[in-house]
Design goal:
single chain; alpha/beta; Rossmann fold; six-stranded mixed sheet; 8 helices; globular; Cyt_trans-like; NAD; nucleotide-binding; Rossmann-like_a/b/a_fold; pyridine nucleotide biosynthesis
Length: 193
């Protein structure tokens, strides 16, 4: 991959190229959201008019997560730093209400419908680590055919799992990793780990 920190792919294109999207969809556990997530959003806004952040209702690997409503509230607080260009969508609660796993393809179709946009005006945001796995995604060929793709390189090595583990073991979290908007709530990981 090229050294750029964000690569844009138009729908049905295998090579990165300059592209602007109306909406980018950034899904994940956000358990908790951190400065790395904010960095991805900041870079995504350079190529999109709006970013919809979608916390996972059920994790695909069935891992335990903090309360869904709390994670949505955290994402909303993080989104506020970007003005009205970033919103949190709890749509996975509805899509996964019957216990189903919510796949990226289904999520993208729903966001396209909700925003009344053609699928080519939407892009899925993924980390560079998921680019090699993209072919294993549910309905991967249709996902790439219909929707754009934004691949974000990791600018800082910070992961939610490391933050949770550090809090659970009583270690201090590096200030560069944290979001001041949610820092006071991080004590929940002392009780849940």
């Amino acid at each position: 991959m090229l050294p750029s920190s964000l690569h844009t792919f138009a729908a049905d294109c295998a090579e990165p190229a300059s592209q602007r999207f109306a909406v980018a969809v950034y899904g994940g556990a956000f358990d908790p959201p951190h400065a790395g997530h904010a960095s991805v959003i900041r870079r995504t806004l350079e190529t999109c008019d709006h970013v919809v952040v979608v916390p996972s209702y059920r994790h695909a690997d069935a891992k335990r997560m903090a309360d869904f409503d709390l994670r949505c509230a955290w994402v909303e607080r993080m989104a506020a730093r970007f003005g009205g260009r970033v919103t949190c969508s709890p749509v996975e609660r509805e899509l996964g209400a019957d216990g189903r796993v919510v796949y990226s393809y289904d999520l993208m179709c729903r966001i396209a419908q909700d925003h009344a946009l053609t699928s080519q005006r939407l892009a899925l945001v993924i980390g560079e680590d998921n680019l090699t796995r993209l072919g294993t995604f549910h309905r991967a060929a249709e996902l790439r055919e219909r929707f754009g793709l934004l691949v974000a390189n990791e600018e800082m090595t910070v992961h939610s799992s490391a933050i949770r583990a550090m809090i659970a073991s009583g270690q201090a979290i590096p200030a560069a990793w944290q979001l001041p908007e949610i820092q006071a709530d991080m004590t929940i990981y002392r009780r849940t780990m």
